[in-house]
Structure formats: C-alpha cells, structure tokens
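Q: Got a minute? One more chain.
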Amino acid sequence: MSQFSYELKHVCKQSGARLGVLHTPHGDIETPIYMPVGTAACVKAMTPREMEEIGTQILLSNTYHLHLRPGEKLIEEAGGLHKFMSWNKPILTDSGGFQVFSLAGIRTIREEGVTFQSHLDGSRHFIGPEESMDIQQALGADIAMAFDVCSPYPCDYDTARVNMERTHRWAQRCKAHHTREDQALFGIVQGAFYKDLRIESAKTLADMDFVGYGIGGLSVGEPKPMMYELLEELAPHMPVNKPRYLMGVGSADCLVEGVLRGVDMFDCVLATRVARNGTVMTSRGRVVIKNAQYAHDFGPIDEECDCYACKNFSRAYVRHLLKAGEITGGRLASIHNLRFLLHLMEQIRQAIAEDRFLDFRKEFYSKYDMSRNF
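A: Always. Here it is, folded:
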C-alpha cells in the first residue's frame, strides 16, 4: 500500500493527544479529523462545493445503501464514486456491517456472511467479506473497511466473543480478497464492552497489519463513560504508526474526549440529521432553534462560528424557515453544524500542536453546557 502512509507528526506533551497526516491518492488528511457522512453519495442538503468551503477533508459514504441503490456497477460505470459525486478529495466507505447489524429481524448471520432483506423493497440480498470487498472496490473510495459483526448493547460475554472471533476471520478473508492498490483497507476492532476482548481484538488485528484500524461497536446505546473507559484500555494496544478511527461518533464532547484517548478519525450522521429537525450544535451546547424562545433572537446561531449561516442570518430567520417548511432552513442548519464540528477539529489540531490540549479541553467545558448535550 505504497500510496498510503500515516505520519505521526506530534504528540501533545500536555495530554498525549496525537497530531498526524494520512496520505492518500486524493490528498492528505490532517488528523484528528471529523468526517461528514454522505450516506447515498451526498451529504444531505449539501453540495460538494459547499463541503469544500466549510473545510471538509474527507467524506464517508455507505456501502450498504449504495449497493441497494443505485448499485456499485452503475457507479463503477460512471468512473467510480469520486467522479459520480464530483468530489475530488478522499472518500471512505464503510463495509455495510453496521447497517446489516441494525436490520435485526430481517437478516441472518452465518459464517459465510449475512443474508438480509432490503429496507427499500423487501428483496433478499447476501453480503459476506468477499462481497463487501467487491462492492467497495467497485465504488473506488480511498479507504475501505473490513466486513465485521457488531455486537449490540447490552450483550453477554459469549455472544461478544463469538462476534469478535467471526470479525477476525472475516477480516482475514477481506484482506485476502482485497486487491485494489489505490485503496487502503482498515480492520475493525470489536469485542463489545468487555476489556479483555477489546484488547485481544486490537492485538489480533494489529498482527494482520492493516493500513488503519476502526473501533466499531461503540456509541450503540452505552453510557459515554463506558465508551471512554474502553478507549483508554484500547489505546496502549493500538499500533502507534497507524490511524485510529472511532466509528459513528460525532457530538462535540465525544470528539474532544476521543482525541484525548488517542483517536484520529471520527464520523457520524448526527450533525445533518438533527439540523433537518431544527437542532443546532453550538459552543454552548445543543440549541433547539425551532423553539419559540428564538422567534425574536436576531443574533447568529453561534457567535463563535465563522460559517456562512452564522455570518449572514439570525436564529430568528433560521427558525422562521424551519417552521415554514422551507428547505433552506435545514440547509443553513446543516452548513452550520458541519462547520461547527470541522472548526472544532481545527482548534483541536492547533491545541495539540501547541502542547495545550488539556487547556483547550478545560476552556471547551467552561462554556459547553453538558445539560444541553446530545
């Protein structure tokens, strides 16, 4: 994988947080980084030009959804996902494992893979490790994820071990089947909420020598302190010279706490999902901007934000648009939420570079109202 490399540029003397660069064929990614999610080859309500304007370095797209619609063969015919969605920077595709996991009741997991019903039309499909690799190689993203088994929360120890061991066998099959040299392959650490299993998974996958490592099966309903404790246990057992990706995590406090515990990459649909429903992320915490108390609030969504929405429009105006059902309201809220998280990561990277991440974290919580958290 000579086209991919990770440089650990600096470790914060104050906190141990990591500053790095992941080199890919479509550009360098400065880490730690938040990756906006474009599930169906589009970040909802956003254009690629707008994504560039707010400082996006890398997007995530969804293997399961793109396989069902429009199909990886059509995207391959179009020249790959980059050309299809007109995005010239890096892209990561997940394996489809989490989406299949979430289809409990309409899927069957076997050693070969997973048979499931489409949520669109009820048609039956099969995805195993090899099929996931074939789909992701046809999509052509810069980073592909190994097909894994995600355990629910809560789950018993025996179930967690069975799922972890199957994830390891599937990771080996993914690596054996993956051949695209311009695409990196990440393994995924599993083990549910058992420290010994998580450590065993991290060591087993490290021995397989993937380009990077996802940490899956967290943020699935467990208390945040439990997630943080597991990340602390995992950190010493993750390869130092490879990127670490905490999957499906995207609230501001979780980004700060994840970075403190050695995480380099994050993704989540939260920012755009809540925006469409009238909720915005701010340096003071969550604001439900559709509430009546903002009807006469002519200040910006967040005084500390530099996004287009905050520079040009008031809370009262965005609220009006949302209440009136105008699509622009959701777009402005989405622009803001995404830029808020990307700007937060810019501030985090600067604080790490200046060896003051713990000071930054303290300043963050001095303003951030945890009672208004997600």
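A: The chain has 15 helices and 16 strands.
Q: Perfect, thanks.
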